[in-house]
Amino acid sequence: MHSSLRDLLITPAEMAAMDLAAARSGIDSFLLMRSAGLAVAAAALRRFPQAQRYAVLCGPGNNGGDGYVAASALVESGANVAVFAFGDPAALSGDAARARQLWNGTIDPLASFLPQPADAIVDALFGAGLSRDLPEPVVETIDRINGRDLPIIAVDLPTGVDGRTGQICGAAFAASHTVTFMAKKPGHLLLPGRSLCGALDVFDIGIPARIVLAGGKGLRVNTPALWSDHAARLDASSHKFRRGHLVVFSGGPQATGAARLSAAAGLAAGAGLVTVASPTSALDINAGHLTAVMLKAIDDPPGLERWLEDSRLGAFVLGPGFGVGERARAFALALCDRALVLDADGITSFQQHRSQLFARLAAAPGRAVMTPHEGEFARLFPEIARDENRSKIEKAQSAAQISHATIVYKGADTVIASPDGKVAVNANAPPSLATAGSGDVLAGIIGAHLAQGMPAFEAAAAGVWRHGTAGAKAGPGLTAETLVASIPPLG
């Protein structure tokens, strides 16, 4: 695969347009299908050489055409192959019909397929373009196969997974292995589709990289290639203020731990100085737990305004354990001119005051990042959250556009979206990150990046990636404290 395509995500509609563009450029579309089918056969033989029979399930479209090519190639390799078709194979047209005509064996109806204990199944029923509920005979086939511990090789995407949204269309195969072409699709990374793909291979089937790059809309997998050019490097002239001053706001006496976790994460992530801004009532509690992190008493908006006259304060994290209400709103609105991570209580405080926040962010020159989990996202963007026709990517994009902030829509499939349309989907987060305090750590890491001068989208993407890497390093039994200690270097 061309290196420029490695981190690309393309939607099924974009893939279809690329196929058409390739054909218009003079490339034989059947040769592309043949390359796809051969890649599937090679993957099946490499991954599951012990299979006594390869059962190839072919659908009524081009995905089925890939399956017929794969079946022919498997037979040529000496394998035992049985083909089962959904619909009338004689009704196929175009390249899929040509592929079916090359298959010299029998074609049995899908309804007659009975899995055998040593089968390996090639799922070529429906590909990434599926967006409607599966027909009942296909659902029945999936029910017969899932749970039998048989290896399943999915062509493009497991049948039943919507390639645009990752959602399940009534039922879906749980694949052991998925073979896709040219670039990953959103459904490979968005839940629940991601959990059904198994190991994923991306094969270059011959569409020129220039066509793929021209046809994509800029969706990316979150990797260091997105933000490494913005990562600050230490040199001999570096000092603590050049590395950025991060401020994290603490809640009252009964809610100070979240802010300290964010502050510790910001310091570990590279901020030169970190200060916890605490109500006077919580100063003693915070002071008893802080060493390298500094402490400042800030009780009300006038006190904050006076402190903000210090231009060396580089970025702010507001929300973890802060409390929901008018005070949180006043603090957040005062910080919109600066670099701000708005998290947790800071987000929830604007549930009934969204327009006030969005208007302020639209008019402000600052760099704002909001980090909602699913519940917080639904509170701040209820209309978007309720729209079942949108993917998580599309929801994050819409939220970023109307809020004028970079959105980190958290989850195992975290999506980072900026108001200017940049989007990345994160794929390195282990399940163990679902633990108390994990989000506070993420907010602190992103805050450190903002304090160092990174643009909001890159700061957020880098933060999410480092957070996932830290989770993998800390291991299954991680806590928020061990997560902080596991934050990897930025560059």
TrEMBL record:
Cited InterPro entries: Carbohydrate_kinase_pred_CS, CARKD, Nnr, Ribokinase-like, YjeF_N_dom, YjeF_N_dom_sf
Residues covered by the YjeF C-terminal domain: 223-491
Coiled coil regions in record: none
GO MF annotation, one: NAD(P)HX epimerase activity
Positions of AMP binding: K410, G411, A412, D413, T414, G439
Domain YjeF N-terminal: 15-213
UniProt keyword annotations, A-Z: ATP-binding, Isomerase, Lyase, Metal-binding, Multifunctional enzyme, NAD, NADP, Nucleotide-binding, Potassium
Pfam families, A to Z: Carb_kinase, YjeF_N
Keyword DNA-binding assigned: no
Record-listed (6S)-NADPHX binding positions: 62-66, 127-133, 156, 258, 321, 373, 440
Enzyme Commission designation: 4.2.1.136, 5.1.99.6
Function: Catalyzes the epimerization of the S- and R-forms of NAD(P)HX, a damaged form of NAD(P)H that is a result of enzymatic or heat-dependent hydration. This is a prerequisite for the S-specific NAD(P)H-hydrate dehydratase to allow the repair of both epimers of NAD(P)HX. Bifunctional enzyme that catalyzes the epimerization of the S- and R-forms of NAD(P)HX and the dehydration of the S-form of NAD(P)HX at the expense of ADP, which is converted to AMP. This allows the repair of both epimers of NAD(P)HX, a damaged form of NAD(P)H that is a result of enzymatic or heat-dependent hydration.
Family: In the C-terminal section; belongs to the NnrD/CARKD family. In the N-terminal section; belongs to the NnrE/AIBP family.
Assembly and binders: Homotetramer.
Name of the featured protein: Bifunctional NAD(P)H-hydrate repair enzyme
Taxonomic source organism: Ensifer oleiphilus
